């Protein structure tokens, strides 16, 4: 029996380069080459050069079927982009500002400086992945997907200035992917077009687009694996299964918290199994599964089991992230996500939502969810921002339109796509699984990859026809939602796009509260120096010292101590180590946090100096975090 043209692969359109496929293959290459070169101790320019040349050869032989799609790719259609309209223009303007911010500043995301970039520095020093003896345990047990993408850049350029490009490229792919997946899930073209711009301006996506956070870029992996899975029913080709497998592997490799999102992908695979597996030969399927396993969370999970006995790497729950009570987890995470996504983008002071939670419930939650946080700062930042109030209002407006259409009995609804309902339901179940197990204070940004499916669920419930998007009110709401991200992009303390000191000086002479001005100065000054917090201590260390010690809490931005990169290594120490051990490690200069001595080990600096026969070279008060305030740090010298 002759297959229809959509299944036989017969198409009159010329094959076009699929940029999304190129990105998925590049991300996969980064993870594959990182693990492979580690086996040979070759995380260096020569190793990566050979790996790159090998990949070029592989693409020349096998790449064409994967890299070229039938017809124009989803992001290449002018009728979708419509840059003559207002929403794409707003998105383009915001994208340009985001790119400028990324070019002007080093990434100062706190997690990036405390464990993600330092683990790159350790691996580069040893030229291989290895278990790092450090109090920052996240260096070892966290997903490595983002780090393997940073590694080639650092090996060749010896800087982190361009790490933001990983998130920025993902941000560029986001609108087209939203449109494609929403359309395949039965959302009307106009509604999908409206949401491709609105959702892309969610605060977590736009704030991380110029930084080194590793939350929002995983949304592209989720949408990509769904895109290729759902598109398989349109074109009979094995490339969709291969790319879908790689994308879902990368999704889990980015963060372990994304593991539940495999469920909606499996649901989509089930409904499209005939189109996915029929054209794929067993050998291709087996090799794709192996590659998927390598780029996924599996390698680091196996290493965590080997070194700690637990796939999470934290068998004793020292981080207090694992929850034992699912009900408390769902309740606590629901409160935390709601608080983060209903807060104003900018406010003149921190806001506590504790008053809205009954004291009995709050006390019970604190026992089961010790890291629960219900206070929001003055501004949405990339370290804690969720999808944001703007997108939440837009989603609520969709429900309002549905209710209005029902009351007026207007013809504003479209039939629901049954597989799409199951996929959206699986996404909601995946979120419940996350909330029942994970107890982080940063839940709103950790679920960045979950938000698209939650929006899909709302749109499927609303099931609106595209005609509703034509209303003036719809256009106004979309514009306001997107414009609400503008002050966050411009005023972002990590990457301010305005003359901070000049503006604050002008405000101080215009009657603005002096407390607010001083608070603003402290925030911007702290972020401005965060990348090199320990400069005043580091300058007193001779260039000839190749190894320095670090006595700290395990949550401090140690990148500053590695500068200039490649010149020295930083080793964590404890007060209990002996002078002979320090001499065996060739350590003569040590940075010491006085808080660790007094609050953790209950000793004074003299109690540390005497057994090490050390002397104080410099002591400084440094503000590492605003809420911790100035803290005393020492640079000491041992014989």
Q: State the helicity in percent bands.
A: 55-70%
Unreliable spans: 1-12
Tell me, rounded to a whole number, the average pLDDT. 89
Distance from first to last alpha carbon: 85 Å
Radius of gyration: 26 Å
The total count of helices amounts to 32
User: What proportion strand?
Assistant: 5-15%
What spatial order of strands do you see in the largest sheet? 6-5-7-9-8
Using DSSP, what is the number of strands?
A: 9
Q: Helix/strand-derived class?
A: alpha/beta
In one word, what is the shape? globular
Biggest β-sheet description: 5 strands, mixed
Give the assembly state of these chains: single chain
Would you give an account of this structure?
There is one protein chain. Helix content is 57%, strand content 6%. Helix 2 (19-39) crosses helix 13 (239-254), helix 2 (19-39) crosses helix 16 and helix 12 runs parallel beside helix 14 (262-271). The protein is globular and about 80 Å long. It starts with a helix and ends with a strand. The protein is α/β, with parallel strands linked by helices. The strands form three sheets. A five-stranded mixed beta sheet has the order 6-5-7-9-8.
Key features of this structure:
single chain; 639 residues; alpha/beta; five-stranded mixed β-sheet; two-stranded antiparallel ribbon; 32 helices; globular; disordered N terminus
């Amino acid at each position: 029996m002759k297959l229809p043209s959509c299944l036989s692969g017969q198409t009159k359109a010329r094959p076009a380069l699929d940029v999304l496929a190129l990105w998925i293959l590049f991300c996969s290459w980064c993870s594959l080459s990182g693990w492979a070169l580690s086996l040979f101790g070759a995380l260096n320019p020569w190793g990566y050069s050979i790996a790159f040349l090998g990949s070029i050869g592989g693409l020349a032989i096998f790449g064409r079927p994967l890299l070229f799609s039938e017809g124009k790719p989803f992001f290449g259609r002018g009728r979708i982009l419509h840059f003559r309209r207002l929403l794409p223009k707003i998105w383009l303007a915001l994208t340009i500002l985001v790119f400028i911010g990324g070019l002007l500043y080093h990434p100062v995301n706190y997690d990036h400086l405390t464990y993600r970039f330092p683990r790159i520095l350790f691996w580069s020093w040893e030229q291989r992945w290895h278990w790092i003896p450090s109090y920052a345990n996240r260096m070892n047990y966290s997903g490595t997907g983002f780090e393997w993408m940073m590694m080639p850049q650092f090996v060749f350029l010896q800087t982190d200035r361009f790490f933001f490009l990983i998130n920025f490229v993902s941000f560029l792919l986001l609108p087209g992917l939203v449109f494609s997946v929403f359309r395949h899930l039965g959302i009307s073209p106009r509604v999908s077009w409206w949401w491709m711009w609105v959702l892309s301006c969610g605060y977590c996506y736009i704030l991380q687009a110029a930084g080194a956070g590793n939350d929002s870029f995983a949304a592209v992996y989720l949408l990509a694996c769904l895109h290729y899975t759902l598109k398989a029913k349109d074109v009979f080709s094995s490339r969709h299964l291969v790319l879908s497998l790689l994308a879902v592997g990368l999704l889990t490799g980015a963060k372990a918290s994304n593991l539940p999102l495999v469920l909606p992908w499996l649901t989509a695979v089930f409904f499209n199994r005939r189109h996915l597996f029929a054209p794929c030969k067993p050998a291709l399927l087996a090799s794709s599964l192996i590659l998927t396993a390598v780029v996924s969370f599996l390698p680091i999970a196996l290493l965590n089991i080997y070194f700690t006995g637990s796939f999470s790497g934290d068998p004793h729950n020292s981080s207090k992230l694992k929850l034992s009570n699912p009900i408390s987890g769902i309740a606590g995470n629901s409160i935390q996500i709601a608080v983060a996504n209903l807060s104003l983008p900018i406010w003149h002071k921190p806001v506590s939502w504790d008053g809205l939670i009954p004291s009995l419930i709050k006390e019970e939650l604190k026992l089961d969810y010790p890291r629960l946080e219900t206070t929001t700062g003055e501004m949405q930042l990339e370290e804690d921002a969720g999808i944001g109030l703007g997108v939440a209002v837009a989603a609520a407006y969709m429900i309002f339109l549905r209710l209005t259409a029902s009351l007026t009995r207007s013809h504003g609804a479209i039939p629901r796509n049954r597989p799409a309902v199951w996929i959206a339901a699986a996404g909601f179940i995946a979120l419940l699984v996350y909330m029942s197990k994970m107890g982080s204070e940063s839940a709103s940004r950790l679920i960045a990859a979950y938000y698209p499916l939650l929006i899909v669920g709302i749109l499927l419930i609303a099931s609106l026809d595209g005609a509703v998007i034509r209303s003036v009110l719809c256009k106004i709401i979309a514009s306001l939602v997107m414009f609400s991200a503008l002050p966050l992009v411009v005023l972002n303390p990590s990457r301010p796009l305005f003359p901070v000191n000049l503006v604050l000086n002008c405000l101080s002479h215009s009657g603005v509260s002096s407390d607010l001005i001083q608070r603003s100065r402290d925030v911007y000054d702290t972020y401005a120096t965060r990348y090199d917090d320990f400069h005043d201590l580091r300058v007193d260390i001779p260039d000839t010292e190749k190894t320095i010690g670090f006595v700290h809490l395990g949550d401090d931005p140690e990148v500053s101590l590695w500068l200039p990169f490649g010149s020295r290594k930083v080793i964590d120490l404890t007060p209990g180590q002996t002078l002979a051990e320090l001499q065996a490690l060739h350590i003569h200069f040590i940075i010491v946090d006085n808080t660790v001595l007094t609050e953790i080990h209950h000793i004074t600096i003299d109690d540390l100096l005497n057994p090490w026969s050390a002397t104080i070279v410099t002591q400084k008060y440094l503000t590492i975090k605003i809420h911790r305030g100035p803290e005393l740090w020492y640079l000491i010298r041992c014989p």
